[in-house]
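Structure tokens please, single chain.
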Amino acid sequence: MVLAAALREELIIPDGVEVILDEGVTVKGPQGEISRKFNYPNVKISKDNDKLLLDVDFPKSRDKSMIGTIKAHISNMIIGVTDGFTYNMKIVFAHFPMTVKVNGKTVTIDNFVGERHPRTSKIVGDDTKVTVKGDQVIITGINKEHVGQTMANLEQATKIKGKDPRVFQDGIYLVSKE
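Here you go.
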């Protein structure tokens, strides 16, 4: 059995994006700025001109998986500050017409399946924006995790328990991701 001496992954930094390495990784671009700490001890992050280098000496299988995970997170940060993320959802109801409103950092769902008390869903992150147009809910932001968690919160807030899901298909569902 021969151990590899080192494992190196490269990530190209596109034009218009600035990556700053301090105690974490900060990515600045035209859409905004995202910072994140990666505290995995074996992965060393460095910068060489327009490339970001991720190095591990004498990698084990966990080190290999962590280097891939960190590379994917930084790649998502770069995509977020250049293009942003957009999730499109659809409001579906067959029995009772529900109304969806955005109130600050929460989304309120009124008259869901005829319930008298409104259901609420939390908007995660400062940059995440939720807009409601007719039966469409559009979630946009630069942080993929915040946009995805906001979408999941909306979907879970309209989950129906105790009824036949084939009959009661009311809810807010994901249609597309961009």
